[in-house]
Amino acid sequence: MKKWIFLLVLFFICADSYAQEVVFSQPQRLPSKVTEYEIVGKTKQGLAVHKSGSKYNELEMYDLATMKLKWSREMSLGDKKAKVEEIIAYPDELIIIFTIKEKNETFLYARRTNPELKPLAEDIELDKIVRKFGTYGFDFFVDVSKNKKYINILRHNYDFSGLDNIDCILINPKLKVLAKKNIPIEERPNVLDETFLSNNGVIFFGQGTNKRTLLNNQAQYESLKVLKYDYRVEELKFIGIEEGEHLINEVDFEVDDKNGKIVIAGFYSEKQASLSDGYLYVDIDMKTDKIGKRVFAPFSAEFTQKIESIKGYRSRKKATNLNINEFIVRNDGGALIVAESAYSTSRNVTRSSFDTYYNSRRTMEVTNYYHDDIIVLSIHPDGSLFWDNVLRKKQYSEDDDGYFSSFGVVNVRSALNLIFNEEITKNTTVNGYVLDAKGDYKIQSLVSVREYDLMMAPQYSKQLSFSEVVLPAFNNRNEFMLAKISF
């Protein structure tokens, strides 16, 4: 039977709106077997979306112009229990990384297909793990270089105290194995899950030694290192960045292939992890492995005044609970940090005495999610501050993991568009901060979603081009939709 698609096309003509067009796909009810979805990316066939659940994997292809669903197919991976770890989209093909578990053995495979899921070659077995009695398990992660010429598959191996070591498998798009390497973890406790790839296939890891106290259970690092593995010369190096002089409570890493550097930026604190006193900026030459600039700079008095003027921060004169959402390397080698003040709290509330389902339980725990103002810093290549700004936003929700909160970033070259729900209710408006290279901004309305009885999730958006972004959405019947916004 022929399926009809219902398209909603919204044209904005008022002066304070900058979205030219918004197109929605047809609402579709998600079956109970689908528990996750991912916007994979563009191919010549269209926009690929992966839906998955226990013993279920499905790929959908949408027309990029109309958002019409072209087709939907269940993925045949040789075993119903197969788990898709990652799907990487290229114009003419897809690379599917998946695992199959058989009793105490787990097999890792890679498959090349065309965008219609037709295999282009035999599956490649990349790894086989035999889980012994008493071991603590493992997880897989996948990193892809910016030029998509290198794929790094990481297996995090755990013991009783956490992450023990990492196995890396580096492959190219033809699924040729270029290197296999085990990365040890020398200091505990630490975090070594910041992994990134250069366009030459060199693997970098961010490694921080975690400091914990009785009064603070948030991650805070008293030392910071970068581990470099170059498969071409089979060389493993540690590059020390910080050894206890500062306490780092948020940090991110990025490869600057254009300028041949690793750029590291974040926030540091003198005492507590939740409060930030300034920013850090470090660059490392990828050829010599030497540190160029290493700057720890306190926030300026002007920035502090901006913080003081904002209601909602739990400590005056301090930026609290900052999480880096976007880290962009500027063309000149500087950095742009886009962070958010976000945290959660839990509380017990009294349950109605008429609720007999929970019998004697008189209280229930409610988790509150707060996603507040956006902090943006533009840093010069020498580590000095170009400009900073605070963009006001206040979002609150309960027991939803902050799904519709936070924001999405769309880079349209001339500006950054930060898309967010004004409030987390069905009467909200999707707004956007338009931020230019000098730090000037304006706020504009994109979509009045109350007219369409839906909620968008900007933090899970996928940028398709310099003028298009796709956002997931759910209507009042909890049906799944995609919204494409053109600028």
Describe this structure in words.
It is a single chain. The protein has 487 residues and is mostly beta strands. Helices cover 2% and strands 57% of the residues. The chain has one helix and 36 strands. The protein has one helix at residues 301-308, and strands at 8-11, 21-24, 36-43, 46-53, 56-62, 69-74, 83-89, 94-102, 105-113, 124-130, 138-144, 151-159, 162-171, 177-184, 190-197, 203-210, 221-230, 235-256, 261-269, 275-276, 278-285, 291-298, 319-320, 322-329, 335-350, 363-379, 385-391, 395-398, 408-411, 415-421, 430-436, 441-447, 454-456, 462-465, 468-475, 480-486. It has a seven-stranded antiparallel sheet, with no helix packed on it. Strands 1, 2, 33, 34, 35 and 36 form a six-stranded antiparallel sheet that branches. Strand 26 and strand 27 (385-391) form a beta hairpin. The longest helix has 8 residues, at 301-308.
Lateral strand order in the biggest sheet: 15-16-17-18-19-21-22
Radius of gyration: 24 Å
From the N-terminal CA to the C-terminal CA, the straight-line distance is: 35 Å
On the 0-100 scale, what is the average pLDDT?
Answer: 88
Strand residue content: over 45%
* Percent helix: under 10%
Tally of alpha and pi helices? 1
Query: Structural class of the helices, strands and pairings?
Result: mainly beta
How many strand units? 36
- Please mark out the parts with pLDDT under 50 across 5 or more consecutive residues, or reply none: 1-19, 312-316
Largest sheet: 7 strands, antiparallel
The backbone outline, from C-alpha atoms, is: globular
